[in-house]
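Anyone? Bumping this.
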Amino acid sequence: MAWTKKVLRVNLTAGTCTTEPLNQQWAQDYLGQRGLATKYLCTEIDPKVDPLAEGNKLIFVTGPLTGTMAATGGRYSVVTKGPLTGAIACSNSGGYFGAELKFAGWDMVIFEGRSTKPVYLLIIDGKAELLDASHLWGKTTWHTEETIKKAHQDPQIRVASIGRAGESGVMYAAIVNDLHRAAGRSGVGAVMGSKNLKAVAVRGTLTDAYQVANPEAFFTAVDAGKAVLAANGVTGVGLPTYGTQVLMNIINELGALPSYNHREAQFEGANAIGGEAMHEKRPTDGKPNLVKNGACFGCTIACGRISRMDPNHFSVKDKPQYHGASGGVEYEAAWALGAANGVSDLEALTYANFLCNEDGYDPISFGATVGAAMELYDLGILTEAEVGLKLTWGSAEALVKLAEWTAVGEGFGKIIGLGSKRLCAKYGRPELSMTVKGQEFPAYDGRGLQGMGLEYATSNRGACHVRGYMVSPEVLGIPVKMEPQATEGKPAMLKAFQDLTAVVDSAGICLFTTFAWGLQDIQPQIQAACEGDWSEERLLLVGERIWNLEREFNLGAGLSKKDDTLPPRLLTEPIKTGPQKGAVCHLDKMLPEYYEVRGWSAEGVPTPATRTRLSL
Amino acid sequence: MQKSLHIDPNKCTGCLQCEMACSWENHRSFTIAKSRIKVFSFHEAARFVPYTCTQCDEAWCMMACPTEAIKLDPVTGAKIVLDPTCVGCKVCTIACPFGTINYVASSGKVQKCDLCGGAPACAKACPTGAITFVDADWTGLEKMRQWADKTDTNPATV
């Protein structure tokens, strides 16, 4: 069947690796990946645990479609309690690592405890062992991956590792696999670092670890799904050509591109850092930033950006190690490293993005934190003496320096590594932190797009765009067009998106398919792969169950209605210019209705009736 | 007409659908470790290159085999490993200059691309047209077309 039905439990304190059967009832209730690991985590840890303490657990998990020919079937997630937010953290990644874990015969790996010395886990099919990683500690993810492959004389090993950011406790440290794919958000890399776990290396060669239940129906459904992706304007043309960066100019023109730490909702430099700009030949060397597009495992969209920098750019002039091609900026990274700080130097953004990959930290949270620091500097609260450089809006030099310092926890990089919430609190201006539950906003203004404002306020992992992507209805008209400033109908639409997203994640496929796919395209693929009856209704119920379980974890962790909010800037400071001029987020209108459609009390707690309906 | 696999690395995105399709065709598993076609990633050069057997006319693997376990399929032109005859001596893996015939420990036999009997699964699965199955005599056709497009029939009106 589509699950390997095997779980690897690694006790880092005791140094043991044990095999246990997958709880198949939970697989039926939570499908896989995000949902299934959430169930394990919620069952096994106290939600009040300190995220960086030994009692927290870290789960790498695949879905039933991971490692199959379903388009984009290569996703894995890392689920844990996040240090940035104190909420549940679930970070999803592509690349090749997730499928390899499945080929080796594992649905998930649960790490518990803490190793006394740096170690990495090596999985070769059914055999798993913890190995000494002292020689890798203090090294980058790129170095780590190369060293492990060489040590075992196997270039086909896949590696997910932390860089120096994860070791030094950057609160938004990421876990990077396949050089430039990342379980990026919420600080899952910091949890890995706190456990002295440097890397997970895996090679899978088994042919009988799992199987799709009905091959004939599976290929019919999968081929139909691929045809839909190829024929769709976004997934067939827009994303392969411009990547997610196709959005930069669209969102800017709509007046919903936050810039200068959300002081503005349009960025005058958007043109210079967007998808089109990456195709243009640079005046300096006559070559474009973008070399080609790349795919994650099994992906027929191939939105990934592969970039090569201008070797004469000030940031890499004497650093030939950055002159080769590597992962270029996606929309979120370009926004956070660029618009959020007013930096319009695409090459500087690309370099900072390389560093985020190389040393494993989230470019969204990093860039947004730099934006907050620049505002503090602009207000005279932060000084050049304190920071160690001039932190003026739009300074590419400052961005580059802070990226270098944050990667290794040096100087003011230590403070930037705390994230925007802790930074602004430290300097007495907590209201300037553009965060929800401690996590930085991504690239859409919650005033310009009302539904996104509600989405940020209610996301279970703090501000995030991939928990219920209201940009689809509010900008792209998918599945129906909703006016950006309207509030009617948004809570119900958001609930539908949140539940559907939980299903997509839990299946092991990529959310970007939903630009083209509806549940009617996804359901037949799951149905054919998994044993049992997976109707659309059942899948949405699974999605809702996952959402509510995450919510209950957060309530148990001490979060409540008061955390379902936005910074005062989004609630009270109207957008100053552009098409959305005058807008604030009307959260007060939408949140009570959202609780109602969720079947939650006025305090945001799932009612007994809801709990019963979802078998929680 | 004989056809052959034609690979255009510029179109490859590294999705590995071809490797899964190959593994499925021959092992009823998506495990890419069992694929007979491999996509190589040259990261710093931003290149993905699918690579498999070119079906040499005078196939060195076939010549080297001491048990005559590799046969020519006269219809497709593929060199096919006959599993019941193969003894797993691996001499063919040494003889092949390109590394495209390899031992499979779990079966004790070697495996190589056999063009799936004339309908290669990799070409069917490739979403970008990087792998196609074309007239064996005209693998250069697309390249010729591209150059033809560049010819200037109305030169030098400077």
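Late reply, but here is one note on the structure posted above: The mean pLDDT of chain A is 98.
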